[in-house]
Amino acid sequence: MPSFPALSRNLPLPSLDAFLQTRALFILTSSAFGIAAASYIAQVPLTPTYELFSHQLTHAPLEDFIKFENSVALPAILQNIGPDGINAGGAAPGIVVASPSKTDPNYFYTWTRDSALTLKVLVEAFIAGEIALQPTIENYLAAQAGLETVSNPSGDLTNGAGLGEPKFNVDQTAFIGTWGRPQRDGPALRVTSLIAYANWLISKDQITIVVSDIWPILANDLAYIGQYWNQTTFDLWEEVHGSSFFTTAVQYRALVEGEILAVRIKKSCRSCLSQSPQILCFLQRFWNGKFISANINVNNDRAGKDVNTLLASVYTFDPSAHCDDTTFQPCSPKALANHKAVTDSFRSIYAINTAIPRGVALAVGRYPEDTYQGGNPWYLTTLAAAELLYDALYQYSILGHITITPTSHPFFFDLVPSITVGTYTSSSPIYRTLISAIRNYADGFISVVHKYAPATGLLAEQFSRTDGSPLSAANLTWSYAAFLTATARRKGQVPGSWGSNTSDALPSTCKATSAKGTYAPPCAIATSVAVTFREVVTTTYGENVYISGSVSELGRWDIELAIALSAEFYTAEDPVWDATITLPLNMLVEYKYFKMEQDGKVMWERDLNRVFTVPAGCTGKTAKRDFWR
């Protein structure tokens, strides 16, 4: 086997012209771009920093920033999804990579939570007209079916315990390192994302696909929720072990809409009916009279003010719901009081928030005691503060009035100091004043993101509490997803109702119940996998590209037995060579590419051998996209 120098992960950056062309291409096709355009956009690295945009965005109005950032966010998400995303090298089809960052911190994994939240965004965009996203959604569906069967440190599918595993390697194998496990929000969020797609399929008379491909995954997740909801969990931030408001809230939603879907497709979800009322009953325990405690049944030094709770209201937002406190809907008095308590907790701890008065938007972190990576504001948490308010505005528009109670009065007082407790109808001037004030407040949080976003629009995880510069994991998928949902709600684009109003009555007695679940593999796992190896490399006439590797299927490093790649799909814009090779499940493969000239001269690509483990899956196929080194 040839000896190769050390691995280099440096990728060539596009020219300014290429970046501008990519941005323009996306804007021109943003309503319904074609598959070819979407594929091209997904491959252009959005990593350089251009001073031109820094100058423009610093002086651009908010609307221009939102338009620009929306043109960046969706392509950036696609770049973090396997197999073809340029930042997702080695990721199986449909696997959502949290971030391409591999050191300090290493986020090059797939989290069940983050992936589900991202998929929900893609489903909403697909339903709105982005038809090119359907293959990505279907790849996610197949990937999750496979992941449900992967034995891991949390357990396996026999008793459902393995569904609580928070993250996996991007090749769909188990992550076996030390971690905060279990995390019980993942199955609930996966239910919500897949039901959104299932409802669309049903609307298109494709119920058979829902029954055969989606319900088997959902049945496992719903059984898991019913069986384990009243057991402790690690929280949204993977730090606190106890009872989590966020987890409990999304579990309740999942069971409610799970039952609705089960009825539509003539299936049964016994745990949905039996456990959802008790979960809702338990949810009330998190309200402490002033705000929502993010975690209970824990022993730590935190005050309990945490954006975990804002995100819970955002992810359980029901456009058709009333402003009731039972489910902590965004327009409910308790949700608004909590919004004030949480956001105000950051006013005195960040230098960039100095002198910002109450009622004016500011940079928002996870929780005030946070020290992770310096304990800075996050883009997604600041966006959550905006999204909750946009959700509330939508609900007010449907209801036609705003009711201010003693609980919510402090929130409204910060915005309109003369306001008093009472109900204000849409025909009154005070109603219009309140609506305007809330919208301006929400826009202020978007403006904070605008102020501290880099010129390229590429969003990291955090930004500095002292000067606002981007920090921690680069190109965080969740940051982009949060921007897209917040700005969609700003425009009044909302998802369908999940049935909150149909079953929000509290039982007379709260009980710590459970329903033993039954579990089954959602699909037959293939014993072999057709792996399509794609190598992006510019060649000249007469050159050919080959793949050679450590296993017999790749010639065992014998050049004479190497596999020739095809240039059938090679274009100037996407110079790709490919070959499909069937390999056994879970096989570990080392491989490299080489060029061969007309005269037989061989040129191997540089650096260490590439390594790939053939993933488990239902489809029996996967793909690898590599770039010539």
From TrEMBL:
Domain named CBM20: residues: 523-629
Protein name in the entry: Glucoamylase
Protease keyword on record: no
Family indicated by similarity: Belongs to the glycosyl hydrolase 15 family.
Lineage, broadest ranks: Eukaryota, Fungi, Dikarya, Ascomycota, Pezizomycotina
Root EC class: hydrolase
Reaction catalysis annotation: Hydrolysis of terminal (1->4)-linked alpha-D-glucose residues successively from non-reducing ends of the chains with release of beta-D-glucose
Binding site for substrate: 179
One Pfam family this sequence matches: CBM_20
GO cellular component: fungal-type vacuole
Any one Gene Ontology BP term: polysaccharide catabolic process
Domain of life: Eukaryota
GO molecular function: glucan 1,4-alpha-glucosidase activity; starch binding
Swiss-Prot/TrEMBL keywords: Carbohydrate metabolism, Glycoprotein, Glycosidase, Hydrolase, Polysaccharide degradation, Signal
EC number annotated for this UniProt entry: 3.2.1.3
InterPro entries, per database record: 6-hairpin_glycosidase_sf (IPR008928), 6hp_glycosidase-like_sf (IPR012341), Carb-bd-like_fold (IPR013784), CBM20 (IPR002044), CBM20_glucoamylase (IPR034836), GH15-like (IPR011613), Glucoamylase (IPR000165), Glucoamylase_SBD (IPR008291)
Tagged with keyword 4Fe-4S: no
Annotated active site: 235, 238
